[in-house]
Amino acid sequence: MKKETQSADRIDFICSFIKWSGLRLIKEELKECVNNGVEVRVITTVYMGASDKRAIDELQKMGAKVKVSYDTRRTRLHAKAWLFHRNTGYSTAYVGSSNLSASAQTEGLEWNVRISNIESPHLIQKLKHLLKVIGIVRILEYMMVLKRKGRF
């Protein structure tokens, strides 16, 4: 993740649980991105109470745009994906099981797939569409519609 941030023109990530232990591993890189004018947009949740307020506050303090879902009854956000946008067309994404926690980012058994815009542009486009951070409710409602239609 650290290397991916170095050439990103925008970073979007959706992660169900954001822990301080995980944020501190990439905090400086994200902060440097924001300081260099790279937009960092985050979607997370308070589902199960697993996200750390300190981590969410720190993301906001550094200048990331953070959307938090407080809906723990209807929609349980459990997605994890990172999208590193590049104006060159070489965008990449990681989709998988890793939350932003130290164990998930270092020694935990997690499954993640790297997607390249050069190799799989249709997958990057679908992910971009889902990660448009215009409001967590709209994104979650869209995901539910796709699920009902059998497309997700």
CATH architectural label: 2-Layer Sandwich
In CATH, what is the class? Answer: Alpha Beta
SSE order: HEHEHEEEHEHH
Low-confidence segments, ≥5 residues, pLDDT <50? none
List keywords for this structure.
152 residues, 6-stranded mixed beta sheet, single chain, alpha/beta
Question: How does this structure look, described?
Answer:
With 152 residues, the chain is an alpha/beta fold. It has a single domain, classed as Endonuclease Chain A (Endonuclease, Chain A, 2-Layer Sandwich). It has 6 helices and 6 strands, in the order H-E-H-E-H-E-E-E-H-E-H-H. Strands 3-2-1-4-5-6 form a 6-stranded mixed β-sheet, sandwiched between helices. The radius of gyration is 15 Å and the shape is globular. The chain starts with a helix and ends with a helix. The model has no long low-confidence stretch (mean pLDDT 80).
Give a quick precis of the structure.
This protein has helices at residues 2-6, 20-35, 53-62, 102-105, 121-130, 136-148; strands at 10-15, 39-45, 65-69, 80-85, 92-96, 112-116. The protein is of the alpha/beta class and 152 residues long.
Topology of helices and strands:
Blueprint: H1 2-6, E1 10-15, H2 20-35, E2 39-45, H3 53-62, E3 65-69, E4 80-85, E5 92-96, H4 102-105, E6 112-116, H5 121-130, H6 136-148
Parallel strand pairs: 1-2, 2-3
Antiparallel strand pairs: 1-4, 4-5, 5-6
Helix pairs in contact: 2-3
